[in-house]
Every structure is written in structure tokens, then in C-alpha cells.
Fold this sequence. Notes:
By secondary structure, the chain is mainly alpha-helical. The chain is built from 16 helices and 5 strands. The chain has helices at residues 17-33, 45-49, 56-73, 90-98, 104-108, 111-119, 128-131, 133-142, 156-173, 188-191, 216-224, 245-253, 258-262, 269-278, 283-309, 312-340, and strands spanning 4-9, 38-43, 81-84, 148-150, 181-183. The strands form 2 sheets. A 3-stranded parallel β-sheet has the order 1-2-3. Strands 4-5 form a two-stranded parallel sheet. Helix 3 (56-73) packs across helix 15 (283-309), helix 4 (90-98) packs parallel to helix 16 and helix 12 packs across helix 15 (283-309). The two termini are 27 Å apart. Tryptophan is lined by residues 6-10, 44, 47, 137, 140-141, 149, 151, 155.
Amino acid sequence: xxxxxxxxxxxxxxxxxxxxxxxxxxxxxxxxxxxxxxxxxxxxxxxxxxxxxxxxxxxxxxxxxxxxxxxxxxxxxxxxxxxxxxxxxxxxxxxxxxxxxxxxxxxxxxxxxxxxxxxxxxxxxxxxxxxxxxxxxxxxxxxxxxxxxxxxxxxxxxxxxxxxxxxxxxxxxxxxxxxxxxxxxxxxxxxxxxxxxxxxxxxxxxxxxxxxxxxxxxxxxxxxxxxxxxxxxxxxxxxxxxxxxxxxxxxxxxxxxxxxxxxxxxxxxxxxxxxxxxxxxxxxxxxxxxxxxxxxxxxxxxxxxxxxxxxxxxxxxxxxxxxxxxxxxxxxxxxxxxxxxxxxxxx
Length: 347
Ligand code: TRP
């Protein structure tokens, strides 16, 4: 059997560089390697509504924002079906049937959902739609028979739950669905990129993000406000590299030719780190270098994004076409699922 790759994002805000290194970059790489039969990337607007049901405009507006981010990063609609979740109603129908295969206590044990419930102050009364979104996510994955799901490590519990539901389905109704595997980024720091404040994961709600749509000036301001080593006060002072956000980002963004291009007096990141540890290397210098290295990556993305943003109707047309194709595949799978469940009265 060939590979079917699928992943998606909740459109609740424009994407940031944490999304980029944690997943987007990997998707574009997978797309270009071409080692797959089908590839789907989608805007999980229905899932976004599970905790934003009172703010539909936010979700709607961000469908376009995230689609722009996708295309700007290099996802190619000729190779990848980009679609909108809510426009594929088969996913909702599958979710309803999968609900039978999961218990409330199992849903309570999902560590990502647990954390999200706390974050949103849902402890007292959890909306049922939000609580059960891992089941809907299983529908998203299985409707396309995806076996490879590129995600960040916060999504591992969803994949585990999806695999359990698939196994249960197949054991009761016969072999129908495919067990998916997560595909994590290789770089440890990229799996859960820390925010510019160094306190935790980069996240919109914490205001510690660099967005793909940020202007050059905004990026610069953010890089120069980054958390480094609070005890590294004078240039001569020895500095700490661990927990220093500038070095964490350099670990993620630095390329082989970055030094030659922007900091030729050093040969490698290790050399730069050693100097910082010894003392005599100032924060301004490493920040300027990081800004150059990040801009190397962001400038072309920003340019493409600005261009695409001028014609939203073209972006919607891409989404419409991708959604039609996705719908066809989901329809086929739903048919098989219903047949397996003996819900095929008129066949
Ligand atoms: N939960 C993902 C997020 O928070 C979005 C998502 C929905 C998803 N369905 C998916 C990811 C299926 C991978 C596969 O962004």
C-alpha cells in the first residue's frame, strides 16, 4: 500500500515560526520528496469552533490567514489537496459512529485535552464538542486512510486515540480503517519551539510568537527583545547557552552557510556557543546574527504571502478545488464504513 499523508491546523490565528519549524517545513519537504500517493492538508475550522463557537468570525477570517500561510510556505495545490474541514460533512458522520467506540473515561485521560481544558477554564463545565474533538480528529485522519500524520508532539495523544478507535472498529466490523502513525520533526527544539520569552511553548495566547506574516521590523523588534541569560550583563561575562532562547533558535534555524554569509569569523554554532560561554560575546551580536538567519527563511515567505493576499478569491478557489477532491475520498470511505456497520439498506 502507498503512503497517504494528512495533517491540519485549527484556524484560530495566523501561523507562527513554531508551526513553521514544527510542521509546515516538514510538509513542504514531504510534498517535494513525492514519496506518497495522496497528500492532504486541511483547515480544521469545525475543530476550531469546539472552543470558539461564540466567535465564528475569528475562525472564518483565520481560514484565509492560514491558507495564505500554507501557500506562502510552499505548499503546492497541484501536489497537495488543501481543504476546509466543515465543507466535508462525511467527517461529521464518521465522528458520530466513532463516538460509540470510545468511553468518557478514556477521553478524560487524553493529556493534551486535559491541559487544554485547564487552560481554557473549562473544568467546571466542558463543552461536549470540545471534549470529544479527538474522536472527530480520528474521523479526519481515517476518512482519507492516512497512514502518515506529520504533527508536533502535543498531537501524539490524538494519534494514540485514533489508533485505538481504528483497532476497535476493525475488530468489531472487519478490516476497514488504516492505523495512522505520527511523523515528528527531527530537530528536538523544533518539536515544541519555545516562545521568545523563554517561558514555554510559542503560543498565540501567551503573546510570545513570531508570526510568518510579521513585518521585517516586527521580527527584528521581537528578536532583540528575546530572553537570553539574565546573568550575562557585561559582554565580558561568561554566558549560559542552555535555556537561552537565541541559541535555541539558532539550533533550529542556523544553516551550514549561515556563518559564511553573516558571521564569517566563526565556523560553526559550537564555536559561537563556546565563545559565549567563555565570555566576550555580546547579546547584540548573537541577536543580530539570529535576525539575519531568521530573515533568510522568512523574507521569501513574507513576499509570497503579500502577493497572494492581494487575491483572496484565488485562494478560495484553491480551497474549493481541494475540498471537492477531499469530499470524494471521504465519501468512498464513509460508504465502506457504513457497509461494514451494516448500514447499507439500499445497496
Ligand atoms: N488538532 C490539530 C491542531 O490543534 C488540528 C487537527 C485536526 C489535525 N484534525 C487533525 C491534525 C488531523 C492532524 C490530523 O492544530
